[in-house]
Amino acid sequence: MASKLTSLSPRLRGGLAIVASAGMTALAAPAVGLSPLALIALAPLVWAVTTARTWRAALAVGVLASMATGALLYHWLPGSLNAFFGFPIAASWAVFPFYAAVAQPQLVLWAVARWRLRHHTDARALVASAALYAGLDWALPKLFHDTLGVSFYADRWAIQVADLGGLYALTFAAVLVAEVACAVVIFRRRSVGAAVTAGVVWAAILGYGALRSRQIEAQTAAAPSFIAGVAQANIGNIEKEIAKRGDLDAIVDTLAAYGKLSEQLVVDLPAGVARPDVVIWPETAYPLAYGAHRSPVDDDMDRELSTWAQKRQVPLLFGGYRREGGTEFNSAILLDSAGEVQAYHKFHLIPFGEYIPLLGRAKFGTGGSPRVLNLAVARPQGAGAAPAPSAPTAATAAQAPLTARLGPIICYESLIPSHAAAAVRAGAQALVNLTNDSWFVSTAEKKLHLAMAAVRSVETRRAQLRATNTGISVLILPNGQLREPGPVDDAAALRYQVPLLDSEPTLCVRGGVWTGPACLLLSLLALVLGRRKR
Fold first, then answer.
1. Do 530 and 120 contact (CB within 8 A), yes or no?
2. pLDDT in tens, 231-253
3. Residue 167: what are its φ and ψ, rounded to 5°?
4. Which of 104, 195, 242, 476 is 20 to 30 A from 65 via CA?
5. pLDDT tens-digit readout, 91-133
6. Which runs of E-coded beta strand occur in 305-444?
7. How large is the average pLDDT for residues 147-171?
8. Are 488 and 401 within 8 A, CB to CB?
9. H, E, C per residue of 73-99
């Protein structure tokens, strides 16, 4: 097979390999979800790089692979630039190739390094290559912090290894399989040691996942829980609505839509269905600076929210703006039934959207550190893993009142492992994720964002309630499983029973995503041992 493939012209060979690898990577990604393809996605690229005539040719293959993979994974970005910044769509597509070229930077450096190992198919060389890929994926800057390992987010056993130290162990294991497949299938070389190594790695990952998943399911079933209502109003770009109809009409209609859904959750209940302990609105659902007293109209709107929470005796957790010391923040605001306010300010701002790198903030202030919002739960439920979390009944056995410690996450922050980990270290028993994905015009982005959020729950072993304005709202259990996702691009009033876990912090929470730098060290060690042997 190798002779037939290498008989092709170098350019054709490289082009076919790039298309094959980029295509399989995109199909394995959360947007499509064919995760087994992640195990062989890089095999064609390994072949193209290792048969390149010079390191410059290998570099070119890496750059083009980054462009092709980036284009398939982030094809929705030009539309988002148009929606978010108002860039003309033609200009957005014109600059997109430049982003795509650096969207997967690990491919560029890895291609050159892999070319240097082109004559070696022993276990040390293949392990070194796979570990280097995963290590570079961790070390190099990426806007969405994604990696090949996120393709396995919905695989019940494989994803559990993330609580040890993040996703990069999965990325390493996937690339190692691709290396072995290329050596055996394409080059027809014996790679017994590498194949055994890959088998042992995956056996360890899946064995750990099977055991750990059962443990977490048992802990979740025994945990107390609370009932949350999520209002997903399907209102996206409020700025466009304001531009069309004026400030007051757009704001009033937005709040009326959220108010109607909230009434469905609290008042218009079927017989025997319990009221929620909190109603949650997504990021920027309240399009004003709560408590800023900027105008009499703003003050009236603020009073409406406070009056609703006190009249219905249900706390309201909503995404909005908060002004302190002359600075406005993108915030998560918890308004309790007595009118008291707790606020968390977002501090991982989205690059180029909320701030311009190297030039400072663009739109909002940067918050301090992750914190916990304390929610009083008068009617805690008994089991966090009840069969029907969307419809808990009044007959559910009540326990003594408790205070639920919630770790807030706002949109882009769900891509940052250290953020969720810091919330758990601060005492969070569950995570609440307020997100606005309406800027991203494709469901592919929504699914990628959801997948990254699901990994945070596995890393921290905390349930995560995700409230979005246009979808996908969902409850993510501590083992990463999704419970009753809401619709996409449609309004919905959703109910969830959220378990509260107080388990000891995981290794990932205590030590961070250490598997990334560990892969770099493993690659270096394998290279050194291989050179000494030769």
1. yes
2. 999 987 666 666 555 577 788 88
3. -90, -10
4. 195
5. 888 888 888 888 899 999 999 999 998 887 788 889 999 999 9
6. 316-324, 327-335, 341-345, 355-356, 360-361, 373-377, 402-410, 430-435
7. 96
8. no
9. HCCCHHHHHHHHHCCCHHHHHHHHHHH
In angstroms, the CA 339 to CA 394 distance is: 26
Residue 510: how many CB atoms within 10 A of its CB?
13
- Residue 261 — pLDDT band, cuts 50, 70, 90? very high
Please check the confidence at residue 370 and state whether its pLDDT lies above 90.
no
Q: Under 8 Å CB-to-CB from 256, ≥6 apart: which residues? A: none
> What is the per-residue DSSP string for 236-271?
--HHHHHHHH-HHHHHHHHHHHHHHHHHHHHTS--T
Rounded CA-CA distance 34/254 in Å is 38
Q: What are phi and psi of 281, to 5 degrees?
A: -110, 150
* Structural domain spans, the chain: 2-217+514-533, 224-501
pLDDT reading at 387 higher than 60 = no
Task: Count Cβ neighbours within 10 Å for each residue of 342-379 and write b for 16 or more, e otherwise.
Answer: bbbbbbbbbeebbbeeeeeeeebbbbeebbbbebbbeb
Query: Could you tell me the strand order of the sheet in which 492-499 lies?
Result: 341-345, 327-335, 316-324, 278-280, 225-232, 492-499
Cα separation, 250 vs 246, in Å, equals 6
3-state DSSP assignment of residue 475: strand
Q: What is the pLDDT of residues 391-438, one digit of tens each?
A: 444 444 445 678 999 999 999 899 999 999 999 999 999 999 999 988
Could you tell me where the DSSP H helices lie in 414-484?
A: 417-425, 443-460
What is the Cα–Cα distance from 427 to 228, expressed in whole angstroms? 20
d(CA 155, CA 159): 6
For domain 224-501, which architecture applies?
4-Layer Sandwich (3.60)
